[in-house]
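Our preliminary data section would be incomplete without showing what the modeling component actually yields. Below, a chain of 73 amino acids is followed by its predicted structure, encoded as tokens that our downstream tools consume directly.
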Amino acid sequence: MIAYFSWRSASRTISHVQRGLGILAGDTIKSAADLKLPVVAVTLISRKGYFTQEIDPQGWQQEKPVVWDRPGT
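Predicted structure:
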């Protein structure tokens, strides 16, 4: 049995975690399934702590929080 732990997810409902590492995690699990490997995937998701980044006209980074409201909660 292989345990795959990832901080990121390839969720289609949470747009801010489906970039870079999230896609890599999804591809890794898909490849393991294609090879019929015994694998269990675990990821952690937090509703807080995510943010988008922008650079203001003065060149400073500005963070804007992203709130994830899971449907049905």
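The CA atoms of residues 9 and 17 lie 6 Å apart. The chain has a mean pLDDT of 76. Preliminary results of this kind motivate Aim 1 of the renewal.
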